[in-house]
Predict the 3D structure of the following.
Amino acid sequence: VLRAAKKMGFYTSVANTGTLYPRMANELRGLIDDLKFSLSTTDATEYKAERGIDGYEKVIESLKLARSLGEQPSIIATATPESIWGMEKVIRLAQDLGVVVLLGPVFDFCGNELLAKEGIEELKRLAKFDNVCVNWAFLEFYLDGGNQVKKPRCRAISSTIVISPDDHLLLPCYHMHDERLKIVHENGHSNLDEIWKSMHVQNKRKEEGTWSFCQGCTIWCYFETSFLWPPDKYFFLNAKSKLRWGREKAKQFIETKTRINLTRKLPGSSDKVMARVGANPVNAENATTGVPSGGGCGTCPSANPANVDAAAGVAVSIGLKDAGSGNGNGNGGGCGSQNAGSEVVTPVEFISSSRK
């Protein structure tokens, strides 16, 4: 998928838990424009309690490996009511690793507790540090109560095409979809374009954000692209966030290529944390016997890698190079995962419908 997307000129983004990356790193090298690893704590015990696996050191290994291969990885840090107050340690770790951390609040999906206003204010404070990005539009949207069905801001169908691994177009979105339209492939072509332009799908587009389950929704995957249009306060706050993201990634690139330190680091050091991981991030045991399974991009509240098939270890986001969608300031909202045995399958592709 990634190789085909690059040939077509798409901007590619992969969000993952880091458990499968070492096995695939060499094959993926150069195919990912925006590589993200999910990490919301610097404590291995807390990581296991959150994820269900002993995967903390694997994430650090993956980050080191990605940098050694010339990639420009980032960390996605999801702030929950429990983890928010330990985010300074995550930021310090990101600074020491020379990567950018995308910091955002946990979204509502499975009855989980959301951040209170105090938590959002803490995110705003943390956003002042180097190597930290937040999406100001989403923070404002979060405080405003999320999507409102009487005045919907969600553009999930218009801005995003969600395709399941078994080739179905999911409507209206992955997390809350109630319709699966089969994509048929014949002679090297598919009927996706025909399905997308059909009257049925276009009528669905007119209803996006208005269904009962859309009320109060803060599932980040769809709002980053939804904020691209029309111009309103979220549009401009999103643009502000993109500029910050570009600056931080440019700084990361310069530091990597020149060894010049441009980062104003937080007091303290995470050297002891990183020292627990060997200098060589790839070891023969993991390469031959496999790694623990991971679910989705690892940021959804329901993502428990212990219960998700290993094949669903990553989520791929693909957008046109200059469209400004499907990349950049994605935060801890995640892109979904389901327990094994569920009817719903984990999405492999999120393809932006924005055009140059």
